[in-house]
């Protein structure tokens, strides 16, 4: 097995929304905001080479939305999904599986491409993986979350016949080295890959823990549908990560790709930070 970081660029989101009830005077020290109160975030995906499968975890925001949409999110950076794949010697047509942690636009937008008036799956040779519970939640969204579930990002996957569902039970095995954990605070039935790599366990944090700056327990996003559930899930996973020496892989941290954790007087905090390539 080989793992590769796939950078798809940066975007900006409101700092207050990203840190919920935590005052700006505190979170601004670790994630400084611009003059519009916006903070920069990565859209860092993960490519998994596992035997004859080439699995892409999440796809970034994509490029098919209109200028008005993108003006809200200040996309920047030179990396794209295609350029990051090409730097590793791969092409989008080589992808066999697209594993979608959840269907918010910054995670699934790159899964579908606009070709003239048509919307087609970006990865024509891949199966796309979600779970039935989250899929149903996304295609029948609540009023608070529906701006994050864009039908043009989701429905073409199903219409193409490339959509598959995992079982939806905690501890599902996706491959022999790749298990699935489920969380329900950020959105219903988000999936966290837990990957055994070089005798280490790497937990892909998705939106349970967007960045190192979100490690303190009260640092829960206002975007989360069920913040108290997120709080309970954070406690569970962070304690498990300390106990079992997991490596955390961050999708949104603009600086840090990976870290290990340690217990301190202030609670669970970072032990070491490093790049995936350093493992």
Key descriptive features of the protein:
alpha/beta; 6-stranded mixed beta sheet; 279 residues; 15 strands
Structure write-up:
The protein has 8 helices and 15 strands. By secondary structure, the chain is of the alpha/beta class. The protein has one domain: Ribonuclease Z/Hydroxyacylglutathione hydrolase-like (Metallo-beta-lactamase, Chain A). The chain is globular, with a radius of gyration of 18 Å. The mean pLDDT is 97.
Give a short overview:
By secondary structure, this protein is an alpha/beta fold. The chain has 8 helices and 15 strands.
Largest sheet: 7 strands, mixed
CATH superfamily (homologous) name: Ribonuclease Z/Hydroxyacylglutathione hydrolase-like
CATH topology: Metallo-beta-lactamase, Chain A
- The share of residues in extended strands comes to 25-35%
Distance between the termini: 13 Å
What's the overall geometry?
globular
Quantity of strands, as a count: 15
What's the number of structural domains? 1
Mean pLDDT: 97
Helix content: 10-25%
The name of the CATH architecture is: 4-Layer Sandwich
Helices and strands, in order, run as: EHHEEHHEHEEEHHEEEEEHEEE
Oligomeric form of this entry?
Answer: single chain
Content-based structural category: alpha/beta
Radius of gyration: 18 Å
Q: Would you identify the regions where 5 or more consecutive residues have pLDDT less than 50?
A: none
Order of strands in the sheet with the most strands?
9-10-11-12-13-14-15
């Amino acid at each position: 097995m080989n793992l590769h970081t796939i950078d798809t660029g940066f975007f900006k989101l409101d700092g207050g929304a990203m840190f919920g009830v935590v005052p700006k005077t505190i979170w601004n020290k670790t994630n400084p905001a611009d003059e519009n109160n916006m903070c920069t975030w990565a859209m860092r995906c993960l490519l998994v080479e596992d035997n004859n499968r080439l699995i892409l975890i999440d796809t970034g925001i994509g490029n098919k939305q209109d200028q008005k949409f993108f003006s809200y999110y200040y996309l920047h950076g030179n990396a794209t999904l295609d350029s990051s794949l090409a730097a590793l010697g791969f092409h989008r047509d080589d992808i066999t599986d697209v594993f979608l942690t959840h269907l918010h636009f910054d995670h699934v937008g790159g899964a579908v491409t606009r070709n003239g008036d048509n919307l087609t799956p970006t990865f024509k040779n891949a199966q796309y993986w979600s779970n039935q519970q989250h899929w149903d939640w996304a295609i029948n969204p609540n009023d608070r979350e529906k701006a994050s579930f864009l039908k043009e990002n989701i429905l073409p996957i199903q219409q193409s016949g490339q959509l598959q569902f995992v079982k939806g039970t905690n501890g599902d095995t996706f491959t022999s080295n790749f298990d699935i954990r489920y969380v329900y605070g950020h959105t219903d039935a988000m999936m966290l890959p837990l990957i055994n790599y070089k005798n280490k366990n790497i937990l892909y944090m998705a939106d349970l823990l967007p960045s190192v700056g979100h490690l303190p327990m009260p640092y829960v996003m206002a975007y989360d549908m069920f913040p108290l559930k997120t709080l309970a899930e954070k406690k569970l996973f962070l304690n498990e990560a300390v106990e079992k020496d997991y490596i955390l892989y961050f999708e949104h941290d603009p600086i840090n790709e990976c870290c290990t954790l340690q217990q301190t007087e202030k609670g669970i905090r970072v032990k070491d930070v490093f790049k995936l390539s350093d493992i």
